[in-house]
Design brief:
This protein is α/β, with parallel strands linked by helices. The chain has twelve helices and 19 strands. The protein folds into three domains: about 10-95 and about 255-325, no CATH class; about 105-250, 3-Layer(aba) Sandwich (Rossmann fold); about 340-400, no CATH class. About 25% of the residues lie in helices and about 25% in strands. The mean pLDDT is about 90. Bound molecules: iron/sulfur cluster (2 copies). One iron/sulfur cluster binds near residues 346, 352, 375 and 381.
Length: about 400
């Protein structure tokens, strides 16, 4: 596993030769494409609309020429169609990029967030999407820069983007009609948020996998649902707050993102500021593989609940904030010794070992009775397993079996 705790380098890849923008997703392969091959597009131009539970607007992140559609692995692990755009590297902004016009009322802020397809940039685990039709009593913001349990993500970013983040949080609070609680790791991290009228809570991220859950549960005062919106809670990252600021104040959809790339198979680690749609292969090649490495296992998201990718041939979307590149383990996982540790630590009180067992035996009714849908995919069951079984992956399979 990757164990870097310090960021060694930072790179700017804001001018890639091409970007690869996913058109379909795990929820929907249907979309309307508004541009043709050979057509010129500009930064922030709406190029497609995807259909699913709700419409998703898709924007160009560079100014350049549409080259066509290719199939690539998506961050959810399936292969979907991507639009390829050759970058002219002139960054011409589309004429429709305009901030909220008139007063910054809740309804105008909500409208802009929806119009620009801002969804919440950390989509896995407890984080919530934006759904302003639901009443919210609390807005929680995760300002703990950690990719559990080994990688500490760059706290410099919160200082670097301080103004955008603070203004984005205030806009969100206004749009959601709810007060804000910021989760921080230290007094130093808290210094960015004091005197802003936010409730600030210090958490201990060493309590791997459950600290977010516990901090929110304590304030809400009850057990939490899988979808926090059902508990009238909105939970976002500081990246999302920044995206809200850029949407409302500048009228810009998410065209850039910050990604940490690290792992035992690499020469070092680095923070990359990239255009959304940049090839991850290009980012990894910038760092270089460590000497003698011939094979690597690549995953995105966190070590606990991230997703393994087939190869490095995928593009970096706004939902990818970490790419792990590790030397693959030689040993196969051991068998379950029924120690019960995974059952003991599960923050939502379900029984991952029993669910895994039911999934192995394809017992649909049993899976259903074991409340698998309550799983928040925190990954802590996999983390504590002495047999190094990817318990979460079994839970995901069980979920798929009954949906
Ligand atoms: S089953 Fe595992 S991943 Fe799901 S909530 Fe429990 S500990 Fe977390
Ligand atoms: S922690 Fe691992 S070995 Fe122990 S019961 Fe759970 S799956 Fe089995």
């Amino acid at each position: 596993m990757a164990k870097a705790t310090n960021i060694e380098e930072s790179h700017n890849l804001l001018s890639p030769n091409k970007v690869y923008i996913p058109l379909a997703s795990v929820n929907s392969k249907y979309y309307d494409l508004f541009v043709d091959e050979g057509e010129e597009v500009k930064v922030g131009e709406k190029i497609a609309e995807r259909f699913g539970d709700s419409k998703t607007h898709i924007f160009s992140t560079v100014s350049g020429k549409v080259e066509g559609v290719v199939e690539l692995e998506f961050h959810s692990g399936i292969v979907v169609e991507h639009l390829v755009i050759a970058n002219y590297k002139k960054d011409i902004i589309h004429v429709n990029i305009k901030p909220v016009e008139g007063e910054l009322t809740a309804s105008n802020i909500q409208k802009k967030i929806n119009e620009l397809g801002i969804k919440g940039l950390a989509q896995r685990g407890l984080y919530t999407r934006f759904d302003f039709s639901k009443t919210v009593d609390h807005v929680f913001v995760n300002a703990v820069y950690q990719n559990e349990p080994f990688i500490h993500v760059n706290p410099e970013l919160v200082h670097h983007y301080q103004n955008e983040i603070l203004e984005g949080i205030k806009l969100l609070s206004k749009a959601a009609f709810a007060p804000v609680t910021i989760l921080v790791r230290s007094n130093e991290d808290a210094s960015v948020f004091i005197n802003e009228g936010f409730n600030i809570v210090r958490v201990n991220p060493n309590n791997v996998g459950v600290w977010k859950y516990n901090a929110i549960r304590k304030i809400v005062g009850k057990e939490l649902s899988k979808d926090l919106l059902d508990d009238r809670v909105m939970f976002v990252s500081t990246d999302t707050a920044r995206a809200v600021y850029n949407a409302v104040v500048k009228g810009m959809p998410v065209v850039e993102t910050d990604v940490l790339v690290s792992g035992t198979a690499l020469k070092g680690n680095a923070y990359f500021t990239v255009r959304v749609g940049t090839s991850v292969k290009e980012m990894i090649e910038t760092l270089g593989y460590a000497e003698g490495v011939e094979d690597a296992s690549i995953y995105i998201g966190s070590i606990l609940c991230g997703r393994t990718m087939q190869s490095d041939d995928f593009s970096c979307t706004e939902f990818v904030n970490f790419v792990g590149v590790d030397i693959p383990k030689k040993d196969e996982p051991h068998v379950c010794i029924k120690c019960g540790r995974c059952n003991d630590v599960c923050p939502v009180g379900i029984l991952p070992q029993n669910i895994m067992d039911a999934e192995l035996r394809m017992l649909e009714e049993r899976i259903f009775d074991l409340d698998v849908s309550k799983c928040i995919e925190c990954g802590v069951c996999s983390y504590v397993c002495p047999s190094e079984i990817n318990v979460l992956e079994w839970i995901r399979r069980a979920k798929r079996r009954i949906t």
